[in-house]
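Page 47, continued from p. 46.
Same chain as before, 409 aa.
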Amino acid sequence: MTFEITAQAAELRDRVKVFMASHVYPMEDQWEALLEARSDRWQPVPMMEELKSLAREEGLWNLFFPDDQHGAGLSNVDYAYICEEMGRSFIGPEVFNCSAPDTGNMEVLAQYGTDAQKDRWLTPLLAGEIRSAFSMTEPDVASSDATNIAAEIKKDGDDYVINGRKWWTSGVADERCKIIILMGRSFDTSQASRHQQHSMILVPKDTPGLEIVRNLTVFGYDHAPNGHSEVILKDVRVPKENMLLGEGRGFEIAQGRLGPGRIHHCMRAIGASERALEMMCARAANRVAFGKPLHQHGTVRQDISLSRIEIDQARLLTLHAAHKMDTVGNQAARKEISMIKVAAMSMACKVIDRSIQIHGGGGVSQDTFLAHAWSWNRAIRMGDGPDEVHLDSIARQEMKSWLNDRKTQ
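Result:
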């Protein structure tokens, strides 16, 4: 099966590739120095805002958004190819207003938000004027089973009052973050099934009672100025109009949010892996050990060949999932979506690790993008649903298909 890119998407991909080479990679090399030069690492970097303005002027903006009035109007397959190019840099997606968690939040608002919610929050997000956060994971429960989420969303007159503790609320430390989509429990367990007890609600960041306790690191990286924070919500009061879709419909929204987001994560991981393989080959060609270039050593050749096989396998599987989403819908593609999450992130960690090994001491330092890329993709193996959850889902669906087939024989 082939997954051909349309002429429009191919042209956009090529323009993104040129933009990345001309603007993003040079900025990436300066990124840490730009942050260190500021008195507060959590303040926006002016150069990023300049590049975002330039990308928007060139029409390389909101390329993920399926509505061609506000984005590129691409299919999942078409955007996947472009997303791979952006994923070659850890700062690349933001330049084009295509970075998480904003992409997922914009899709949620577009699909489930009221007109008033869209006007207030979606419009400035699409314009790149503000940023957003998504708050689901909690430190006191196993959040891989999202039915454990315990933050309380309680109706009080014309308002909802929220109490709870969250962590890994990505992006909330950024001063550009103005809105949080929060998932919490809004029903007693006796009142609804386990997947109808939770809701998603819009919480403006400046709401009284919301406190950022600390910023977390990912294997030592703080990912400033966006970051990942632990947050306490104490009697946080928001109007009832801030509820998304309706009480008890949080899991319904979550399922709609995860499909495209996992395509994005996987293709970005594939882009990072391609860059790691290119660096692996360059190192193998230019470095001499034990009297011959590294690429003449059998173990290095094996690392290169396995990496090429695994990258291409992950790409084809991801494009297959994207194609199925485009043709039969996210629900019908849920098994494939789980499969790519396991395959792509595992592959990225292995390929990047091989490149680190071939780079030796330089591979674990700040002198290349490899250490940062490995830490990010290793974290996403958990952050987008741990492998164990996806493997369980795949097996259940596979067994259901097999049993159904047996019944019809």
